[in-house]
Model the fold of this input.
Amino acid sequence: MAEAGATPEGTEPAWRQRAVSRSLDSARSRAEKRAQRFLDAAFELMDEKGSTEFTIQEVIDRSGQSLRGFYQYFDGKDELLLALFEETVRESTDDIREVVDAETEPLARLHAYAIRLHEWCEPPDKPRKRGAHNRRPISEFMVQLAVNHPERVKGAMEPVSFLLLELVQDAARANLISVPDARRAAALVQQTVMYSWFGNRLIQNPRMRLSAEETWEFCLRGLRST
Amino acid sequence: MAEAGATPEGTEPAWRQRAVSRSLDSARSRAEKRAQRFLDAAFELMDEKGSTEFTIQEVIDRSGQSLRGFYQYFDGKDELLLALFEETVRESTDDIREVVDAETEPLARLHAYAIRLHEWCEPPDKPRKRGAHNRRPISEFMVQLAVNHPERVKGAMEPVSFLLLELVQDAARANLISVPDARRAAALVQQTVMYSWFGNRLIQNPRMRLSAEETWEFCLRGLRST
DNA sequence: TCGAGGCGGCAATGGTATTCTCCCAATTGG
DNA sequence: CCAATTGGGAGAATACCATTGCCGCCTCGA
Done:
């Protein structure tokens, strides 16, 4: 189980395909570079401002490209943000998989997954791994995205969801948890963990916040004999 | 426990206070009426369009009042939406409390709460109770609100949260669940239930959606011996 | 009756996304 | 090597909205 880069549907980033297919096939690599420049600029702005409220104009200026070009590669701002989101998920999937693969016991793997996913959105005070981005703004934007383009978000989350499904199935096979339907169980866990982070923003007093561990314990009990 | 209208901080709607305090005290009732007309118009538009993306202008036209007046009562569109949100929560609290009070057994009361809260956001195919509004757009907007004004959302949710806390405490006192900290447990339940609804929008296949009952069972197991 | 504040009507401003238009410069085919 | 085609830069023009400002009426209290 859990082979190296086992993304469900091929491994090519979805945004890349979309952006590139708009250009001629011969110019593919140049097109990718240009699209990438937009993405890089957007990531920078996002990291600096700590929010997704940069303007297209800023992205243009920063990337040293033209407005025209931007709309040639992206259908609009939402598409750009979706692309950022997809990139971030990809990054995170690798990160989570790494942590998970450090464990061998099925429950320990699930545990590692839950903790890491919960921390996924948090702004790490500790210096970020080189090249990793501040995920907070993206996570926040994700909920808006989930309202307006649920299918897209689901699609982008696929890698993370898929990994979790595997872990749940493994644990179930080992009789460590008893779930009648692995998919539903996985969905429940993913939701609980992710929105537990989101819900924390409604709680001022930091001591009242729900930690990753607490959330995990709650999930674990939920999984024992569904 | 669970006295009739036991809102934590007085029972006067918060938006009403805000809107009214902007006017002279003598003209209070007239001011309330005017503010209410704006709210009514906004509710209508929201119900019709199924979203909060109506324009201020539409609210003005529909309510037969002036732009000027609008900004006299509300600091901006966000305040209006917050007011709608608060009203809706109030409505729902009454509704939930009613269902809960039909039960006497602590766990049954908790169960009733969870189910009702989960359904809270769903667009009821069944004709709505007269005067009740389509809560979907509000619920959707709530997540945006939670990003931008977490404290306000928390404040508005207070009545619902408070009710849940009581129920959890009652159940704990009766030794039906064992939670070290009722507040945290309540928060966890509320989050799980509410976001379980929200998460469902990421699942196309209706048969894979998480039902209110499933979510409740998950919570219940989570509460048994924390 | 007079004056001031409440309020309707509406034009003006400001911030953004998105589209349009013009033009240059490089590539390419003859 | 030249001219046609086209990718792409600059940025003006549009389209929306929210929000503010300004003018003048009209009412209500003194």
